[in-house]
Amino acid sequence: LASLNSVLLGYDIGIMSGAVLFIKEDLKIHELQEEVPVGSLNLISLVDGVLAGRLSDSIGRKKTMAIASVIFFLGAGVMGLTPNFGILLGGRIVAGIGVGFGLMIAPVYTAELAPAASRGALVSFPETFINLGILLGYIVSYLLSG
């Protein structure tokens, strides 16, 4: 279950590929403004992944994963309600913080709790769930494209 956090990153990647077509039209942005929000999530999640370790050491892995999910959904909500490019980018940054925290802590939490016999298989689940999230994002983009 901890590895399901990885679905957030995959879903965000998949859904953004479909949403960016409408964002460009609705917000009247140019190509650079289209590319920055798409790539910013990965950059922010990389930076915040480093901070997640310190946070989880101080408050615990489960609380950090819960905080990561809440932060991601706040960012997604901001992006969904954005009236302009600046707020869209702010929402992407907030979502990136949540993704970075979740992706860093879920494998650590899983490795700490898993029995030795199944640890390797369980720790590989985040990669699988990233791909599942991408697929879900593409499916939702397709279903909403009409």
UniProtKB/TrEMBL annotation:
The protein's name: Major facilitator superfamily (MFS) profile domain-containing protein
Location, primary (coarse class): membrane
GO molecular function: transmembrane transporter activity
GO CC term, one of those recorded: membrane
Protein localization: Membrane
A family per Pfam: Sugar_tr
PANTHER family: PROTON MYO-INOSITOL COTRANSPORTER, SUGAR TRANSPORTER
